[in-house]
Amino acid sequence: MLSHLLIKNYALIDQLELTPDRELNIITGETGAGKSIMLGAIGLLLGNRADTRVLFNPEQKCVIEGVFGVSGYLIEQIFDEEELDFSDTCIVRREISVSGKSRAFVNDTPVNLETLRRVTSQLMDIHSQHDSVLLGSNEYQLEIVDTYAQDDNLLRQYRVDYQAYRSKKTIYDQLQAEASAMRKEFDYNNFLFEELAKAQLLPDEQESLEQELNILENAEEIKERLQLAYEYLDNTEQSVIDFLKGTVSNLAYISKLSDQYEQLLQRAQSSLIELRDLADEISSEQDNVDIDDSRAETIRERLNLIYQLQTKHQVKDVAALIALRDELERKVGKVLNLDDTLAEAKAQADAAREQLQLSGQTLSNARQVVLQPIENEIGGLLKELGMPNASLNVRSEVSKPTPTGIDTISFLFSANKGVKPQQLKNVASGGEFSRLMMAIKYILASKRSLPTIVFDEIDTGVSGEIAIKMGNMMRDMAHSHQIIAITHLHQIAGQGTAHYFVYKDHSASKTVSRIKKLTFDERVNEIAQMIGGNNPSASAVKNAREILKQRATATVK
């Protein structure tokens, strides 16, 4: 339950603190005093979005903090799944900075809005007038059935199976779409692949072939110049080597006369050895140069093929052609194996659909079981709430699988005898919606271990004896749930175990909303004003006092 609420710098609220009673808390006040503002602040704790427009003082951050007692509510699993510290006291805080940036914390651990919503949805439920609009939607009606059926585990398993099926079906559908396109391209891709495969391309062959062809095309000139180079170095008449031999001979002679010439001799001998080796290599290279027109033509044909392929595929080198060949091979192979791949994907999608149908039917069966009890319980409560001829029919139709199951739930309602039940949105008035919603909240309260329930003017459109019965129902619910009820009706206000009054304070330069807990005498006066206006008569005061005494007596019993 909510044990403490702090609101700072929000809308018309400078700072507000509330310590609710553990049972039925009544909140009253004039229209515009700030009751809805309080709910807006609580909504931030539940994960609603906000911006800087909520700041009372635009130069300070807004802080909303709720302290909840969660002992005995079996929600530890959610904390474990979200990796949050769990204790019997849960502190939820929301901050909005002056820049509009929002931060949320659960037990001082930063969380995103999704996690915040998941945690706080187990701590508090707010009924607002918007819920009366939601009640007309089939999706909300399905949520009511699921809450009553307590089928959370079945619904969770169904959603897992639904996502698995959607994933497998998407893969299969994509493969089918790709298969059609790939089959259209197969002949062309296969032709290109076979052409490249037939070429038997090697990574570095283009460079080596171009070099070899250049030599063959200039073979005569290369051979002549190698011969000249050789003759300069070593021939029978006059050569560099012969001159160098003379140099070695002279240096050898003078080295015998002095050691200082030894190094020159060694260098000359090394040069002679190197030149002889160079001459031999030049001679060998000359012998290796062949004038082979046939080989040159073969190389030209090979290079022309490579050049044509590069131009055709708009690439610059053989490596790119090889990469293209490998990619085409993959595409061609994929088409050749397409039937097997499609068959496997279809088998997986069919298996996932069968599992989805199984879990969907199991979930549907759990829902079907509770439809009649829902009709009976709500019908009985509507009679107590002054609608003896009202009837509610809950219909279920099997539909194609959706994220919420294979059922479409429809609440058909009639408030009058002899009138055929129709869709809620077409037949219910404001007061009828309020009573129907009260009945629904009442039967669902026993199905959920929810600490706190907030009713925002659920009594709209009702009065008199019906309001008294709604107040009794709230009081009954408050035995197992903490109830916070915003109301304009004295019949409901008198049932509270605690009564808070919201008002506007104009004493400062800027109007602020404040809240205070009323004493018994203050409650008498407030309820008397709700009965008879701003200046209640003595009988209205007496009536108010009597209402509170009756509540006290009922509580003792």
UniProtKB/TrEMBL annotation:
Where does the record place the RecF/RecN/SMC N-terminal domain? 2-506
Q: Which residues form a coiled coil?
A: 206-285, 335-362
UniProt keyword annotations, A-Z: ATP-binding, Coiled coil, DNA damage, DNA repair, Nucleotide-binding
Q: A Pfam family name for this chain?
A: SMC_N
- State the superkingdom: Bacteria
Q: Which InterPro entries match?
A: DNA_recomb/repair_RecN, P-loop_NTPase, RecF/RecN/SMC_N
Where is the chain membrane-spanning?
none
What does the function comment of this entry state? May be involved in recombinational repair of damaged DNA.
Family label: Belongs to the RecN family.
PANTHER family per the record? DNA REPAIR PROTEIN RECN
Q: Which NCBIfam families match?
A: recN
User: What is the protein name given in its UniProt record?
Assistant: DNA repair protein RecN
> Could you tell me which species this protein originates from?
Spirosoma liriopis
Gene name as annotated: recN
